[in-house]
Design a protein that fits this description.
The chain is mainly beta and 297 residues long. It is 4% helix and 43% strand. It starts with a helix and ends with a strand. The structure holds 6-O-phosphono-beta-D-glucopyranose (BG6). The site of 6-O-phosphono-beta-D-glucopyranose has 10 residues, from strand 20.
């Protein structure tokens, strides 16, 4: 056991919050609640698994995912911060999904198990004032995720984008429908970031899809007839929703994603990106929160 893992011991709760060696020898937390289980890697504070009893896993994980301390994990819930998308000379989607987070709190009730991970980032650089991230993961009848950003600088504003990049496991993308975005403006990244308005009451995915919906706080429902399951994404303090599926050519071009995995996944991501990026005054904080519910039909 490493020194860091030894320091975690007092926060572990036998049978409810346990530490295991995950893929790539990276440490992961295993949460057990009354009727669900979850797994979180300290690498990137990455939730890789959530499953209710008698239900299929909620989150898609690529069988081709890398598990290395300098690479993001493919699937689950990557944490995107403080920028969204590619950036010249820097890693796409920011630097926290490959950072080493620390477990700082754990708690249980009869039905729920929760942990809080922290990135005491203290990055006081020309671009990023000092800030601290805390991420609470609550496994129960639903999966709740709360990302708190605190601007710990006393003098500088913190401007950032953030996104909980949830990959949902689905039975078949061809039959899957998404509701909750009708009438919302979006940037179509597959069509040169053209600004469009969503007209469909139910969105079907029929090809590569990469849409950034802006100024929307609505819940989104994913209906997956193949697995007879509905997933509801409910969010707070989030003004953007991103819908992504790489489809055939992009799946083939991605080294850490299987060529034939695209029909089994759909990303419906919640955050504050692009024109919805946030500004935190010195000393201020903000929390992006999600509740992911699934029901059979
Ligand atoms: C989505 C972006 O959020 O993430 C896509 O809108 C991107 O453009 C996808 O391809 C995956 O990104 P990455 O960096 O994890 O390969």
């Amino acid at each position: 056991m490493t020194d860091k893992e030894t320091a975690l011991q007092p926060l572990l709760i036998s049978g409810r919050v346990e530490m295991r060696t995950g893929n790539g020898h990276l440490p992961k937390l295993v949460l057990t609640a009354a009727r669900s289980t979850a797994e979180i890697y300290l690498h990137g504070a990455h939730v890789t698994h959530f499953q209710k009893q008698n239900e299929r896993p909620l989150l898609f994980m690529s069988a081709q995912s890398l598990f290395a301390s300098d690479k993001p994990i493919r699937g689950g819930v990557p944490l995107i911060f403080p920028w969204f998308g590619p950036r010249d000379g820097a890693a796409a989607h920011g630097f926290v999904r490959t950072a080493a987070w620390s477990l700082v709190e754990s708690s249980v009730t009869d039905n729920e198990t929760s942990v809080t991970l922290e990135l005491a980032q203290a990055a006081d650089s020309a671009e990023w004032p000092a800030h601290r991230l805390r991420y609470r993961v609550i496994a129960g009848e639903t999966l709740r995720l709360e990302l708190e950003t605190a601007n710990t600088s006393l003098t500088r504003e913190l401007k950032y984008e953030e996104c909980l990049h949830t990959y949902f496991a689905i039975g078949d993308i061809h039959a899957t429908r998404i509701t909750g975005l009708q009438g919302v403006h979006y940037l179509d990244k597959v069509d040169h970031f053209t600004e469009k308005t969503e007209t469909a009451p139910e969105i079907a995915i029929t090809g590569e899809t990469d849409c950034v919906y802006l100024n929307t706080t609505s819940s989104v429902t994913i209906t997956d007839p193949a697995w007879r399951r509905q997933i509801v994404v409910e969010k707070s303090d989030s003004n953007s929703t991103v819908v992504w599926n790489p489809w055939i050519a992009k799946a083939k071009a991605m080294a850490d994603f299987g060529d034939d995995e695209y029909p089994q996944m759909l990303c419906v991501e919640s955050g504050n990106v692009d024109g919805n990026r946030l500004t935190l005054a010195p000393g201020a904080n903000a929390t992006l929160a999600l509740e992911l519910r699934s029901e059979a039909f």
